[in-house]
């Protein structure tokens, strides 16, 4: 009895300690959790980026034409900021879009 318990412990240690290497874009065609998670986070970042871009367009349309802070350089810096903000929000999964995508795609 103790031999079988020891054998199970050794097997469990080998299985648990075995590093799991998941290669993105493998040729097996299997759905891999790492790929789904990365794609979901990237999609959430893309969605947030587009959302911020549309919000900026609306605020620019409503802003005055002779605004001191409305220059091309300011616009470029604001776009960089929006891009970083969208990536950060997506990494934090603040909107929940990535979680919903992971849940839906992992069920298959």
Largest sheet: none
Q: How many DSSP helices?
A: 4
Briefly note the structural class of the backbone.
mainly alpha
Strand content: under 5%
Anisotropy-based shape = elongated
Distance separating the two termini: 40 Å
Low-confidence stretches: 14-20
**Would you list the SSEs in sequence order as H and E?**
HHHH
Radius of gyration: 23 Å
Task: Estimate the mean pLDDT confidence.
Answer: 75
Helix content: over 70%
What is the total tally of β strands?
Answer: 0
Quaternary state reads single chain
Helix and strand arrangement:
Blueprint: H1 2-17, H2 33-62, H3 72-92, H4 97-106
Protein described:
By secondary structure, the protein is mainly α. It has a domain at 32-106. It contains four helices and no strands. It has helices spanning 2-17, 33-62, 72-92, 97-106. The longest helix is centred in the middle third of the chain and has 30 residues, at 33-62. The radius of gyration is 23 Å and the shape is elongated. The model is unreliable at 14-20 (pLDDT under 50). Keywords: Bacterial flagellum biogenesis, Cell projection, Cilium, Flagellum. Residues 53-104 form the Flagellar protein FlgJ N-terminal domain.
């Amino acid at each position: 009895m103790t031999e079988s318990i020891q054998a199970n412990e050794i097997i469990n240690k080998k299985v648990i300690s075995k590093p799991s290497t998941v290669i993105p874009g493998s040729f097996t065609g299997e759905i891999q959790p790492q790929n789904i998670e990365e794609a979901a986070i990237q999609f959430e970042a893309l969605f947030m980026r587009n959302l911020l871009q549309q919000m900026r367009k609306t605020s620019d349309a409503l802003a005055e034409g002779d605004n001191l802070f409305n220059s091309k350089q300011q616009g470029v810096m604001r776009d960089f900021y929006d891009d970083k903000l969208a990536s950060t929000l997506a990494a934090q999964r603040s909107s929940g879009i990535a979680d919903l995508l992971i849940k839906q795609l992992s069920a298959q």
